[in-house]
Design brief:
Elements: H1 2-6, H2 23-45, E1 48-49, E2 58-59, H3 61-72, H4 74-89, H5 107-125, H6 132-157, H7 162-169, H8 174-194
Antiparallel strand pairs: 1-2
Helix pairs in contact: 2-3, 2-4, 3-4, 3-5, 4-5, 5-6, 6-7, 6-8
Length: 204
């Protein structure tokens, strides 16, 4: 009995709580969420602070991408970040600092955000965003995925050594990532508590 009541909670992410009374309306809801997540990421990318000596600025982009993935779940999160990336490659100037295209050295971070959104979304569906400690772990893992793609891409595209890529594309951002994780640790579990769908209760 306990397993039957605990299991449903792990199958829900925050976006699933947006009502949809039919399959057709669920598709419309999902499309709106995917578009909204892409727009949120694009807006957050404009909160940008250059880092001296590095082609990768500090932005709100990564935080938005991880938040979108966690709230929407793996499938919708990946679709949302995929839409964000595709629109930017097509010329929409909503990458960091109003840029677009795929030739900049920081494009690997965008690819990493797509993968990270799916990872954190899958973890959220298993209850990874229900408590402060779980959320911290999810955010740290998501950030690690972004760097695992972004730093090697930076090294390749900018002709840097591995050490140089780490110095320019990872170390300057660790403090900011910690602050973003702390913000998520407060926001996501609080949202579940507000909605009375914490990690120990059945969703429904």
């Amino acid at each position: 009995m306990s397993s039957s009541t605990a299991a449903p909670a792990a199958r829900f992410v925050l976006a699933d709580l947006v009502p949809a009374s039919s399959a057709a309306r669920a598709r419309v809801r999902d499309a709106a969420l995917v578009l909204g997540g892409a727009v949120l990421t694009g807006l957050a990318a404009q909160l940008s602070v250059p880092v001296p000596g590095s082609p990768v600025p500090v932005t709100g982009q990564t935080f938005a991408a991880l938040l979108v993935g966690t709230a929407l779940g793996a499938r919708r999160g990946f679709a949302s970040l995929g839409l964000y990336a595709a629109a930017g490659v097509a010329g929409l100037p909503w990458f960091a600092e109003g840029s677009s295209g795929w030739s900049m050295p920081s494009f690997g971070y965008i690819l990493g955000m797509m993968l990270a959104s799916a990872v954190v979304g899958a973890l959220a569906r298993r209850g990874g965003d229900r408590t402060v400690l779980r959320t911290a772990g999810v955010m740290v893992l998501g950030s690690a995925v972004v760097y695992a793609v972004g730093v090697p891409y930076l090294a390749y595209s900018a002709h840097l050594s591995a050490t140089q890529a780490v110095d320019l594309g990872l170390r300057p951002y660790l403090l900011g990532d910690a602050l973003k994780a702390a913000l998520a640790m407060g926001m996501l579990p609080a949202a579940w508590r507000f909605l009375h769908h914490d990690g120990d209760d059945a969703a429904g």
